[in-house]
Design a protein that fits this description.
The protein is of the alpha/beta class. The protein is built from 10 helices and 9 strands.
């Protein structure tokens, strides 16, 4: 057994990457460049940390598990590019300089971690996270799955993709669910102005979350029947269809038409 192979804690939902070559391939295609500061969430046994240190300026590896943190410090004893922080990421102080985030995160904390990143006063330029496939589809929406309230509330400010699909056997131990790499890239030019952000969120929550089986019923408090008919023709959607059938572009067009 490797001297870095610290036992896992089942309570932390830890699933470590098995292959160095897979870790290298993952980092090679991740949005990480030579001058980047990268915050790594849940470095675990350091498989991704090692590859990150080869490709970026500095890695701040935030590990909640104390035993893993000590093992990581032994693994990177004199590498000035790697800083190990034993801390719950949700309590970690995010940098106030440009940075990116990468991590193989606990599946049971995905929503809280993504929420922390996208709502931060200084959000990352990119977040590249290994997460459960179902969670990734909820964040990404179309074209990977149907749009969700979560995806619609993120997309004016973030471009979201499912960038990699893993096999369960890529992990130790294999998870009981499928995993993917979710990429969130902060838009340099938001599609909704900051001054209208609250209005957009209210509009989407009101319409998408309304109790109704059809788009027509969801939109009828915001538009007249005639407007819905014209919009359905111009934007090419069936007003009798479910609200989840609308694409983000269609929702954005509806919001902009509303004025």
């Amino acid at each position: 057994m490797s001297r870095y192979r610290t036992p896992r804690r089942a309570d932390l939902s830890q699933h470590f990457l098995r292959s160095r070559s897979l870790a290298a391939s993952l980092i090679a295609q991740a949005p990480v460049r030579q001058n980047d500061l990268v915050v790594e969430i849940g470095p675990g046994r350091g498989m991704l940390t090692r590859e990150l240190a080869r490709r970026c300026r500095e890695v701040v590896a935030v590990e909640f598990d104390g035993a893993l943190s000590e093992a990581l410090r032994r693994r990177f004893p004199s590498d000035s590019r790697v800083t190990i922080v034993n801390c719950d990421f949700l309590r970690f102080r995010l940098p106030d300089v440009p940075y990116k985030v990468l991590g193989n995160i606990p599946f049971n904390r995905t929503a809280a971690i993504v929420r922390r990143l996208v709502q931060a006063d200084s959000p990352p330029r990119d977040a590249y996270l290994v997460v459960q496939r179902e969670a990734a589809e909820r964040f990404a929406g179309g074209p990977f799955s149907r749009e969700t309230l979560t995806s619609l509330l993120l997309k004016p400010w973030w471009q979201i993709e499912i960038a990699w699909r893993f096999r369960r056997t890529d992990f130790d131990p294999p998870p009981g669910v499928d995993a993917v790499a979710l990429w969130l890239a902060r838009r340099t030019r938001p599609l909704v102005d900051r001054s209208r952000a609250a209005d957009y969120r209210r509009f989407v929550r009101s319409c998408f979350g309304r109790d109704g089986r059809s788009i027509r019923r969801c939109l009828r408090t915001e538009f007249t029947g005639t407007q819905i008919h014209r919009l359905s023709r111009n934007l090419r959607f069936d007003p009798a269809g479910p609200p989840g059938g609308l694409t983000f572009d269609q929702w954005l067009a509806l919001f902009r038409f509303r004025g």
